[in-house]
Structure formats: structure tokens, C-alpha cells
Amino acid sequence: MPLPLKIRRLGRQPYATVWRAMSAFTDNRVADTLDELWLLEHDPVFTLGQAGKLEHVLAPGDIPVLPVDRGGQVTYHGPGQIVAYPLLDLRRLGVGVRELVSRIEQAIIDTLAHWQIEAVRREGAPGVYVGAAKVAALGLRVRRGCSFHGLAFNVAMDLEPFQRINPCGYSGLAVTQMVDLGGPSRLADVETQLIGEFCRQFGFAAEPAASVLPELPARAAV
């Protein structure tokens, strides 16, 4: 019997609002809380992971830089990029962090394959690559056995801000997107395929949920 996965398609959201919401969701979940997958776009922002060094932020200009509590280095989020946050109870799934990363990468690889785009993973450099260029980045956090933060998948966006940073801490790392690889430009089409591939990787059955951030229990409101 597949486990249910609540799917929230949230549209465009400011980064800090969603960060607070997924952190609170993780802190307030209990043993029978259903896992969720949030899909959205962010307003333009550079985020600097826990391993992040400011020296990799070369010229942010008018785009804010936000230190956050995920793994990894610096990356860019902006309109035209799918950001997906898997809020999963890893203990219940019986999945470790390394396997979590691998399955998320595979879901992205299989999504790209739907449009005949051949992608690969790289040992020691989480994310998904087409040739030498990165098309999706990963940055995760696990707290009390539950995951939050997630993946950023370039679909049809302005890639110029990636030139203002060393993406994921790599100087000169090329970045690409689906629309430049012959894929679709509509985020909704890619989201739908990604949801299906993600559910296949983890044995979930997708359950559409309200397109709003979940309300926290009263005890969490401070």
C-alpha cells in the first residue's frame, strides 16, 4: 500500500516565509504526520548554506544574500526555477541521507529523460548535470529524522545571476536549464512529471493539498 504524500503547489513565494514554514512544520510534526512535497518559485535570492563562504558570492548587486541552515554552498533561486521541498520522515521511510539524495537526483534525471534530455549525477558533487552544466542543485537538512529544504531545478529562467556567484562553491561552473536543452518552458508541465517521478522513487501516492502553506498547531504560535 503506497504511503500518501501531500502535494502543495504554492506558486511564487518569498524565500524567508517558506523557510520559516518548513522549519516549523518539521519541528511540529508527530509520528503520524503525513509527509509533504512543496513545489514553488522563489523571488530572486542567493542562499548561502551552512558550508557556504561569502567569497563565493562575487557580485550580488540588488539580489539579497540569505545565510540559511541547509547543507551546501551558495546558489540562486528565482522565477522560472522549480524549487521542491520534500518534508519526509526518513525513519518511517527507512531511508538514509545518502539514499535520499540519490533518489531525489534520480527523480530529476527521469523527469529530464521524459523530454529525451540525458542527465547524470556526479560523485561528490550533489545535483544533476547535462554534459558539464548543472541543471539542478540540492541542499538538504535533516532534523529529528525528518528532511526539509530540497532541490532547485532550472526550467526557463534568467540565468545571469549565476554569473554573480561560484555556483555551489565551484568557480566557473556552467549552469543550464530545460528550455535551452529542448525541454518545455511551462513549469506546471515539469512539476507534474517531477511529482510522478518523485512518488515512484519513494513509493508514495500523491494526494493534492491546498495551494497554501500549512497552518501550524496553536501550540506552535508564539
Fold and architecture overview:
The chain has four helices and eleven strands, in the order βαβββββααββββαβ. By secondary structure, the chain is α/β, with parallel strands linked by helices. The strands form two sheets. The chain has an eight-stranded mixed β-sheet with strand order 7-8-9-10-6-2-1-11, sandwiched between helices. A hairpin with a 2-residue loop joins β7 (120-122) and β8 (125-130). α3 packs across α4. The termini are far apart. The mean pLDDT is 94.
Could you outline the blueprint of secondary structure elements for this entry?
Layout: E1 3-13, H1 15-28, E2 35-42, E3 45-48, E4 65-67, E5 74-77, E6 81-87, H2 90-93, H3 97-114, E7 120-122, E8 125-130, E9 133-143, E10 146-154, H4 187-202, E11 204-208
Parallel strand pairs: 1-2, 1-11, 3-4
Antiparallel strand pairs: 2-6, 3-5, 6-10, 7-8, 8-9, 9-10
Helix pairs in contact: 3-4
Search tags:
single chain; 222 residues; alpha/beta; 8-stranded mixed beta sheet; 3-stranded mixed beta sheet; 11 strands; 23% helix
Low-pLDDT regions? none
Q: How do the strands line up in the largest sheet? A: 7-8-9-10-6-2-1-11
**Got a strand count?**
11
- Largest sheet features: 8 strands, mixed
Principal-axes shape call: globular
**Mean pLDDT across all amino acids:** 94
What's the gyration radius in Å?
16 Å
Query: Proportion of β residues?
Result: 25-35%
Backbone structural class = alpha/beta
Query: So how many helices?
Result: 4
In N-to-C order, the SSE pattern is EHEEEEEHHEEEEHE
Distance between the ends:
38 Å
| DSSP helix fraction | 10-25%
Quaternary structure of the protein:
single chain
